[in-house]
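Notebook entry, structure prediction.
Reason for the run: the old model in the group folder had no record of what sequence produced it. Starting over properly, with the input documented here first.
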Amino acid sequence: MPTLVAPPPAPQRLRPRPTPRWWRDAAGVATWLGALLVTALWLKGRGLQNLGSSPADLLTSVGRLTGLVAAYLLLLQVFLMARVPAIERSFGQDELARRHRLVGFWSFNLLLLHIGLITVGYAMTGRVAIVSEAWTIVTTYAGMLLATAATAALTAVAVTSVKLARRRLRYESWHLLHLYAYLGVGLSIPHEIWTGADFIASPLTRLFWWSTYAVSAGAVLVFRIGLPVWRTLRHGITVTAVTRESSDVVTVHMGGRGLHRLPVAAGQFFVFRFLDGPGWSRGNPYSLSAAPRRDRVQITAKDLGDGSGRLASLRPGTRVLIEGPYGRLTGEHLTGSKVTMMACGIGITPMRALLEDLPYAPGNAVLIYRARSEPDLVFRDALDALATERGVTIHYLTGPRIRSRKSWLPESAKSWRDSQALLKLVPDLRDHDVFVCGPDEWMDAACAAALDAGLPVERLHQERFTW
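New structure, fully documented this time:
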């Protein structure tokens, strides 16, 4: 008889390393130490002594300090969104986006204050009109024309980051405009080096500022450009098929080389760029809609804009650029053995992947899936299979939303209080880890209901695609 040889075992999928909890605290401490060092260098340059010399010197000295802090915060803003893995895994992209926006507005406001104080202080010293002094500064000081262009670029970024403006812009347009932040940082450097006395006051000062610029630029080059290029070339991902889940939802199936070596967990997302023609350079974030496999991944998206709308027309063989994986909506921080998934609309995508991937015993997982109507329930067959194979309890809640109050429930359940209804569906909710994903207002209501029902805050897991 011929000798039977067993097939080689499938390669084990690489998973992200656990994130040490102290990384988050270390990042916060380093940030504040940097701000304190900026202030200390200003003090070393006689910043405090100049406050009492004259009103003009006071304005000029405070203007110097606001300029230094604005420059530091601008670099911090760049670093926060450089996708540094240790930082991204510690905070998550939604929290980083919030902090990035907060730091950005502080930086911009301090920049405007710096411009105003310096201009008025110089005008008082020279006993000339403020407008005349402003013109002199812009046209005669080294690097000031570039600094003016930098201010214009940063103003465009700040204006389009206001909530009202963001709502009026498509994500793709906002993302393109936001790239002007890098232009603003680059154009501001000559002014800071050539005319910024506090940048060249001593070897220590030069070392600090050049190191800060190098760290920020290096983080962008390595993690926003280098690592995505390396992973794209290494795995050679292409589209294998596109299937329609509903009238406005499609799933894109992709394959590649050695995808088991991607350090990705269920619940995470990538930024995808599909090389299918004009507009390929605009990346869009999509969660994996199934647990990652050795040789394939998939995403599912609703037609919400130019990026997601074009997915239905992708052809097999289309090459794909990837950036990621990102996100903290994973099983890394599970506190127990029971899980509840609360999903609304396309928010089901990471929930399905988590239900496929997380370890739990039959009966210890619950899915609450909210949709407008029965045809809008995506993955119905796959979810019902999970109910059969892994003992997941599934509650489908369909129908229009409640209009009389902010709620996660459909109109048909408006007589129920939000937390009461949740406990009816999951009586032992307090013993579960609860994952929430969906539209922002729905998530607010769902999270509030879970906490009102007695869920410990450390067992509530959520992440939002805010921009």
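Summary: Confidence is low (pLDDT under 50) at residues 1-10.
The old model has been moved to the deprecated folder.
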